[in-house]
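Just curious. Protein, please.
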Amino acid sequence: MIGFCIFGLFFLLILCNVPIAVSLGLSTAIGLLVGDFPFAMFPGTMYAAMSKFVLLAIPYFILAGVIMNYAGISQRLIDLARTFVGHTKGGLISIVVIVSCFFAAISGSGPATVAALGSILIPAMEKAGYNKAMATALMSSSGAIGIIIPPSIAFIAYASITDVSVGKIFAGGVIPGILVGISFIVAAMWSSRNDKNIKRLPKASLSERMHALKEASWGLLTPIIILGGIYSGIFTPTEAAAVSVIYSFFVGMFIYREIKWKDLPKIFYEAAVSSGTVMYIIGCASIFAWILSTSHIAGDLTSAILDFSTNKYAILLLLNVIFLIAGCFLEPNSAFYILIPIVAPVLKRLGVDLIQAGVFLTVNMAIGLVTPPVGINLFVGCNIADIPVAEVCKKIYPFLVSSIVILLLITYVPQIVMVLPNMIK
């Protein structure tokens, strides 16, 4: 009974527009009191959940992303993509998706990707004749690739819950992330196929391309250093995150010279706020999940899912529906800590590899970043473009359809996800 009570209270608070972090904290605290659990376990359990070594990578990757944003890497990546594909049909569309993929590999966060790139790319698309609402929908959707392309904060949270290899799940996200990006390019070109106001950018010369490549090369090396170091065995994912901070600081301070000493307090403040929010959510969600497990709600829900059907494909479809709905209300980390303890036994019973499951469940949450009522990317994009959410929602459906097609593909064809992880020993 207590499990249903805290679930009900949690979703009631969310529907009342209470922030997710506050909703989790309040419902968890009340759950402990109602269940007559010792309240003193709250801080201890939170600390235990947040003190896992693998989770130390999260604040490091967040800090590296903030530093790279201040270092001007986003503008340099945009300039690089513009010189190579800007003159082609749908060139700006390709630029939005390509740069989002690269920036995602630096920041590991969907909202951060939209915030860093949207203020530059949305006005550029509008100036080139693209519909403003479509441009905002494309930018918001492309930013969601930030939690699919490694390094992904959502992948790190999932790995900490299921004890799977962070390196392998990072590798599993590469191909699906690229496929989602391609599907967005196709969807955006289809959406603007009859728009005669669209203008192509002028073709860049070879010297302009080489200059843009030179300027962006330091930023392009970031994911290579992170992933190359992990897969070569030079350092662990957590150590890779720390290296990315040092590297991004060096590039921003001494190569691009866009970061000044006076900027450091602001950079550390932004990173601390973002990291604190994520880690607080993880701590509260872990207690929430513990209450569900102790009150047998988790086990009952697991049994209910297994009783739904004997067909593996039907259950996988049901899990996708559950996470798609959860993505409409929850941010990825809290959703994983609450739901993964329920669905992990189901996945193991079905013989689904937890690496593959982590990727397609994360894609579900990426879709949730652009679906109301709590589509964080959608609201960030609309705020940047100064356009009503309802207007953008009319243009978002081609991207939702295309991403759901990719979701079903990687759910039922596991080789797409597992080809790269299987190469890692």
The two ends are 45 Å apart (CA to CA).
